[in-house]
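Request: Have a read of the protein record below and say how the chain folds.
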Amino acid sequence: MLAERRHQLILRALRSGGPAAVTDLSEELGVSPATIRRDLVKLEEDGLLTRVHGGAVADEGDQPFAEVAEVRVPEKDAIAAHAAAMVEDGQSVLLDIGTTAFRLARQLHGRRLTVITSNLVVYEELADDDGIELVLLGGMVRREYRSLVGFLTEDNLRQLHADWVFLGTSGVRPGGQVMDTTVVEVPVKRAMIKAGAKVVLLADATKFPGQGMAKVCGPEDLDVVVTNAPVDTATRTSFEEAGVEVVVAGKVQT
């Protein structure tokens, strides 16, 4: 196996499963522990992980879309199916960046809707669907994460209104604060919230508490949270106090 491919697999394992031991990575990739140790040294030098005793942990930060898209697909599809069922034909939908929004876009085929997005993968998914009026926001291209950002994106959003906004997140704090790992995406997400009549957060179980240093919004800015597992008590209480509906696996939790 080429070193570049090993590095991709190591990072994917750390980001999806948390800290990992050298021995576990060695068995999973079918190479010697010495090879894994050299790989970890190189990845640490590149700023992609931190070595700890006996293994490594991935550093927080933005992950390439192609890597994230392959993680927790069944969970994301379950969330997407619930979200799609909330939308009625003839309505307008604003889709955020991220892989869960992409899975939601796949659920919208054949519907009569207007879809607005800064997510290039969503655009590519729906571009040939004649039943969908598709609006692609302008802006600077973030190639690794397949999104559009910047003042052009924000200006576009100030001129638009959507019945539904579906947001992604890097993490949700116990107080209900929605976080993101990338500061440049935060103004776009905030502009999306202002452009929507109803704001829905799409967050799988790993997003509680997840990651993120930049606050996007508080629970008072949300109407619904769709997830795939029960939310921890502190976060659920914060949502309840803000009047946020939490939908879990087909049932309403609050």
Q: What stands out?
A: The chain has a mean pLDDT of 87.
